[in-house]
Design brief:
Length: about 100
């Protein structure tokens, strides 16, 4: 015996207007995050450096490892060096692309 599917109004579902506003909010948040991350390349370097070390050393206690990692006295110098290297690479790529054009 087939059962008819009866759709009831969902009181917690978003209205079309709410969906549009939510989507606009999500888009604006992504744009704002992108702008922030472009202004602060150190964020990407910090995350990348941490993940590299975690995957390389595979600590049992990741939280403890993170606490130690981010309190290392030389972390500022390491991150600044990474940023400088990334900028050099970007300049080389830009020169190469300009030369190829």
């Amino acid at each position: 015996m087939e059962h008819a599917v009866i759709e009831k109004a969902n009181p917690i579902a978003l209205s079309e207007e709410q969906k549009v506003k939510l989507n606009q909010y999500k888009i604006q948040t992504r744009k704002n995050n992108e702008v922030f991350l472009r202004k602060h390349p150190e964020v990407g370097c910090l995350v990348s450096d941490f993940l590299h070390e975690v995957l390389l050393k595979r600590p049992e206690n990741v939280v403890e490892f993170a606490a130690e990692h981010f309190t290392q006295p030389d972390i500022r110098n390491r991150i600044n060096s990474q940023i400088k290297e990334e900028k050099k690479l970007l300049r080389r790529e830009a020169r190469r692309e300009a030369k190829d054009s």
